Amino acid sequence: MVDAHMRSDSNAETATSSNPIGRSSGRFVARTQVLSVDDVARATRRMAHEIIERNHGLDRVVLIGMERGGVPIAEALAKALLDIEGIDVPLGSVDVSFYRDDIGTARIVPEVTRISFPVEQAHVVLCDDVLFTGRTVRAALDAVTDFGRPSTIQLAVMVDRGHRELPIRPDYVGKNLPTSRGESVNVSLDGVALGTMVHDEENIAE
Amino acid sequence: MKDLLTIDQLGADGINEIMKAADSFAEVCQRPVPKVPALRGRTVASMFFEDSTRTRTSFETAARRLSADTLNFSAASSSVNKGESLRDTVETIEAMGVDAIIVRHRSSGAPQQIAKWASASVINAGDGWHAHPTQALLDVYTIRQEGRSFEGLRIAIVGDIRHSRVARSNIEAFSALGAEVTVVAPPTLLPPHVDALGAKVSHDIDAVLAETDVLYLLRMQRERMDQALVPSLGEYHRAFGLTPNRASRLADNALIMHPGPMNRGVEISPEVTDDPRVRVLNQVTNGVIVRMAVLYLVLSSAAAERSAS
Which member of B31, B40, B54, B238 is catalytic? Predict the structure, then answer.
């Protein structure tokens, strides 16, 4: 995931704002480093422990990363769970493009959803990098339930930046980060930074 | 991309973008419930002024799997027979509130004309001898699914090139992706300016078999037989048909493709239709997948253009 480093949540979730340009536009300019690479590793490990505690082990627990930023988070959590419990939990990914309530505000070529295990009766932990409006999570809930009826769906995010527009809350949070709407958060396994998106001239002209 | 009218408008990048989206829809089609709400509330109208059950059914299946509503207009049972003009027909359908119109027409250029009149997206499902872009896209997807790279891939298209919109669109698509295309036909079944196709030309299928990675057979249209372009269908089969003997000279990993419906005993011997290298049913399955991708991309970019303006 090369572009996990360059990604910011405003790419994924500003489809609700007035920016019609889409996911790949703009450039993230960091202002403050919020979490270091070690902080992210520690937060991942703590969330893994919480997942085990909450589910009384890892029986029927599966991880599903939300494309694209949630996929490396899910992979890191799976690795932490393996280190702690010695259990390789099923790992999948979901692209929510087909379930969004704002199709057409951005032209997005979707990623392939990979859920190769049954979600029926499973404890599904949805993973994302940033929780913002909650609309992507809403879409992901629809996407996952199209595959079956899980016992529970839980939500793990590296950063909760607030500004929810739907009644959705996370179960596992790496870092609560109060932000203003205009700010952007850049999350990768190398760290978390707060900054702004800069739209270059040629992107606006598109 | 408000409309999809030809392969040329896409170029290699546009084709590849559709292929990438099609991978996602292939996954959707494998689910227990092969349906997503992506185009909920959108209406897709199919207007077929020329009969085609396969293509129409494929598009309608694709639209339904995207949760779009479908509306079927068939010229045979319509007011076209009462003398209504094409423009009036299109305006009437559009006034019912459709987001996309899928057009099949016997006249080349009809979809282009309709796209100028309509604010809805227009998808060309075959016009005259001109173009059939979604057929070319599903054929590209089928070859790509085999893990084959198009760069330098040797593709022979055999049959009635002259009257074939499939041949034209497929040559455009295969060439754009870097394949080496050879058309194989008797001179009577080649178009007048054959060089303009951008493909090599051969009149001898036996000369190209050994150097072919993909053998693409076109349907011999029986209705052409009264024009004395070939002596008889039996004669055509002997000279250009894929017989067991010819099939044995194709490489083991070659692919045999056909847009359907196959005329057994004309372009292909009945024994060869069961050859493991035949990909005809994959082509049909992939037709739904690729048309889902086209509908999704065309309708989402049409909406994006509207919200940007």
Answer: B54
Residue A22: per-residue pLDDT:
37
- Mean of pLDDT over chain B: 94
Give the mutation candidate from A19, A97, A99, A112 for the B interface (greatest B CB count, under 10 A).
Answer: A112
Partner B contacted by A99 (CB < 8 A): yes
Q: For the residues A128-149, what does the mean pLDDT come to?
A: 96
Q: For A37-46, B91-100, B225-234, B295-304, which range has the lowest pLDDT when averaged over its residues?
A: B225-234
Residue B219 DSSP class? P
Cis? peptide before A68, omega within 30° of 0? yes
Q: For residues B208 and B300, what is the distance between their CA atoms, to the nearest angstrom?
A: 43
The count of domains in chain A is 1
Torsion angle defined by CA atoms of residues B21, B26, B32 and B37, in that order, rounded to the nearest 10 degrees: 20
Tokens for B75?
A: 């010229």
What is the distance between the alpha carbons of residues B152 and B46, in angstroms, rounded to a whole number? Answer: 37
Q: What value does the mean pLDDT take over residues B283-300? A: 97
User: B13-58: per-residue pLDDT in tens?
Assistant: 999 999 999 999 999 999 988 999 999 999 999 999 988 889 999 9
CA angle A112, A115, A117 (to 5 degrees): 160
- Is A97 within 8 Å of chain B by CB? yes
Q: In chain B, which residues have their Cβ closer than 8 Å to the Cβ of A103?
A: 38-39, 299-300, 303
The β-bridge relationship of strands A123-131 and A61-66 is parallel
Decide: helix, strand or coil at residue A125.
strand
CA nearest to B154, candidates B175, B138, B168, B133: B175
Query: Is residue A21 scored above 50 in pLDDT?
Result: no
Domains of chain B: 11-132+287-308 (3.40.50.1370), 147-278 (3.40.50.1370)
Q: Which pairs count as long-range contacts for B8-12, CB under 8 Å and 24+ apart, including other chains?
A: B8/B172, B10/B133, B10/B176, B11/B176, B12/B176, B12/B177, B12/B178
Q: Kindly provide the ipTM of the predicted complex, given to two decimals.
A: 0.83
Range of the domain at A155: 2-205
Q: Which of B62, B51, B50 has its CA nearest to residue B4?
A: B62
Which of A21, A109, A147 is the closest to B20 by Cβ? A109
pTM: 0.89
| B104 labelled catalytic | yes
Tell me the Ramachandran region of residue B92: left when phi exceeds 0, alpha when psi lies from -120 to 50, beta otherwise: alpha
The whole-angstrom separation of Cα B130 and Cα B170 is 11
Query: CA–CA separation, B247 vs B243, rounded Å?
Result: 6
Burial class (CB within 10 angstroms; exposed 0-12, middle 13-18, buried 19+) of B226? exposed
Which two three-digit tokens encode residue B228? 């004395």
Q: What CATH number does residue A6 fall under?
A: 3.40.50.2020
Known active-site residue B200: no
